[in-house]
Amino acid sequence: MTAGAIRTSSSCARIVLGYDMALLTKQQIDVQLKTLDEWTLDGNAIRKQFTFKGFPEAVAFVNRLVPDAEAADHHPDITINYRRVTLSWSTHDEGGLTAKDIAGAQMADRHAREPA
Predict the structure, then answer these.
(1) Alpha helices in the chain (DSSP H)
(2) Domain limits, the chain
């Protein structure tokens, strides 16, 4: 198992695009949140608000997310308020958080650090 990989407790876990689709336990979520910058648990999702210089930079950030989200076939809920973008990740088919959501948050953080 690679660094940062998540081991789930379910022996019936489905694997989709290389991600374990088993729901994460509360303990696993707590551990993973400590590795993420400013992401918070919000019900069955993780959420973060990003702030950019202006509206064009906010939209550019969302556009940088699109190819990776499409490739993973996993998409965040997105709210754009002028220069703020709020992302929320949850695996709706599973009813909560899976490794795909943690990977999505990590991907979003990488794209947020890229120049507009």
Answers:
(1) 26-33, 55-72, 99-113
(2) 26-113
Architecture of domain 26-113: 2-Layer Sandwich (3.30)
Tokens representing 29 are 């979520």
Question: Interhelix angle for 55-72 vs 99-113, to 10°?
Answer: 140
Indicate yes or no: pTM above 0.85.
Answer: no
pLDDT digits (tens, 9 = 90+) for 36-94: 999 999 999 999 999 999 999 999 999 999 999 999 999 999 999 999 999 999 999 89
Q: Match 């973008």 to its residue by tokens.
A: 85
Helix (H, G, I), strand (E, B) or coil at 97: coil
CB 77 within 8 A of CB 42: no
- Report the 10 Å Cβ neighbour count for 78: 14
CB within 8 Å of 29: residues ≥ 6 apart:
41, 46, 97
